[in-house]
Amino acid sequence: MSLLTKGIGAAKKVKHHFQDEIKRRTPVYISPVRRIERVKTSERICAMTFDDGPCRLPASPGGDRPLTLSLIDTLEKHGAKGTFDVVGDTSTNYPDVAGKHGSASWGGEKYDHYPDINKDSDGGAANCPELIERILSGGHEITSHTYAHILYGWKPLVYGRRKFLGDIELVLSDLEKLHSLMLSKYNYEIKLSRPPHYVDRISNHLTSYDAYACMGYQYMAASFDGAGWLPLSSYQAEVEATWKPMERALDIDPDFFCGQIIFQKDGYNMARRTPIADGLEKQLELLDRYGYRVVTVSDLLKQSPFADCANGDPAYPYAKKLLETGFCPAFRDNTIRVEKPVTRGELAMIMFGTQAANDRISIIKSGEKSHFRDISTSHPYYAAIKLAIKANCFTVDRVFRPDVPITSKEFIFFCGSMFAKSPKNIPYSLSRVDVLKILADYI
Ligand SMILES: [Zn+2]
After folding, report:
1. Residue 370 class from Cβ within 10 Å (0-12 exposed, 13-18 middle, 19+ buried)?
2. Percent helix, strand, coil in the chain (nearest 5)?
3. For 299-330, what is each residue's pLDDT tens digit?
4. How close is the Cα of 363 to the center of ligand 1, in Å?
5. How far is the CA of 430 from the centre of ligand 1 (A)?
6. How far is the CA of 87 from the centre of ligand 1 (A)?
7. 197: CA distance to ligand 1 center in Å?
8. Model confidence pLDDT, tens digit, residues 262-271
9. Ligand 1 centroid distance, CA of 151 (Å)
10. Which residues face 225 on adjacent strands?
């Protein structure tokens, strides 16, 4: 193992450690936007997402046709469907200069440029209609990786010198630009999005989740790194890094990839090579050998929408019905968590969270004062609680107690106001399945 490989391996470990640490410390709330990393299923199905394309430049080294087309050929050879997480156009991200080759700023010091700096016109949905048409005609999915791939907010650790949007209105207008391009030109409605470099914080307590709630999107994350973005000591080593870990994982557990989303790149890595062009064939051969179907992320979600609750689980039909009717039965990490009782704040959010998305932004922007002594206006449930109280679903004064489990008496009152009917003979302490079942029956 070379020093460079060792160094990158260590950097990767640190990165994963930080991500796990952030995950552990972040409290989880009910949310209209679910971060989808993987879903619960015992079927051998999985999805592959390809970021930063479409890319008209050829595979490197050795390619002679647009990278996106080579990837589509390989996918289709195996009957696989890809999810192309495209950008719109990065050509307005100037003035800018290339950073150090092989570093995170390889494609620009102030911004990202795809497929490369000063070659923006060879990438992006706005510049490559022929590639977008080909993706769609093959039945693959298109998701939004934003129009200009500008960071939503400041990210001091790796991207401290990068320009960022820093305001939710700017984030929304960027997302809207790609959304309306796809809708007006291709009659295609985007449903999922992934923020540039997974930077979520925008400003003022608002995050990518707030932006996606307004857009009606779900947050498309991934659970397995296809490794195509990392530069290694040689092209061969990079290609191996795309499939060897998959081979090892499947060798240990043939069901390892059930419900997983694999992260890939439709573009250059930091060393301006595209190991995915050769690695994808090997990855798909492996998945074929173990009987996997590679489907789009939307199809994966149709099969099984949640991370911890699937067909056959007691809460599943109720959570699914609530979700399909536009309510939010799931936590931000896409779990249902049947073992936890439903709290007062969660009940307000399940029923009013989708509706409250725009209110939440205007409440925070207006600087209004909280009506409650125990919740600030930036609390993820504040706007939903306000709507629930307006609908007379709770009787409260200045203290709301969002984290206290709902009592059967409070739930009967809530249903009476919300549905003009109330459940009878319900248990004194309500389980989450009880609550979801009654709500699903009443909607
Ligand atoms: Zn990206």
Report:
1. middle
2. 40, 10, 50
3. 999 999 999 999 999 999 999 999 999 999 99
4. 31
5. 44
6. 8
7. 6
8. 999 999 999 9
9. 10
10. 263
Structure tokens at 94: 């100037």
Beta strands (DSSP E) in 103-226 are 141-144, 192-193, 201-203, 206-207, 218-220, 224-225
Across 339-343, average pLDDT: 96
| CA 357 to centroid of ligand 1, rounded, Å | 26
- Where do the DSSP E strands lie in 9-70? 35-36, 45-51
- Centre of ligand 1 to C-alpha 52, Å, is 5
Ligand 1 center–CA 53 separation, angstroms: 9
For the record, the structure tokens of 65 come out as: 């046709």
Q: Are 325 and 319 in contact (CB under 8 A)?
A: no
Distance 367 CA to ligand 1 centre (A): 33
Kindly list the structural domains of the chain, giving each domain's residue range(s) and its CATH number in brackets, ordered by start. 28-300 (3.20.20.370), 308-442 (no CATH)
In the prediction, which pLDDT does 159 show?
86
Alpha-carbon distance of 148 to 113, in angstroms, equals 8
Q: What confidence score (pLDDT) does residue 4 get?
A: 45
pTM: 0.94
Distance from the alpha carbon of residue 5 to the mean position of ligand 1, in angstroms: 23
Rounded to the nearest angstrom, the distance between the alpha carbon of 103 and the centre of ligand 1 is 15
- By the 8 A CB rule, do 414 and 393 touch? yes
Q: Give the chain's radius of gyration (CA, Å).
A: 23
Query: CA 439, CA 443: separation in Å to the nearest integer?
Result: 6
CA 328 to ligand 1 center in whole angstroms = 28
Cα 145 to middle of ligand 1, angstroms: 7
**Position 100, amino acid:** K
Q: What is the DSSP string of 70-89?
A: HHHHHHHHTT---EEEE---
- CA 237 / ligand 1 centre spacing (Å): 22
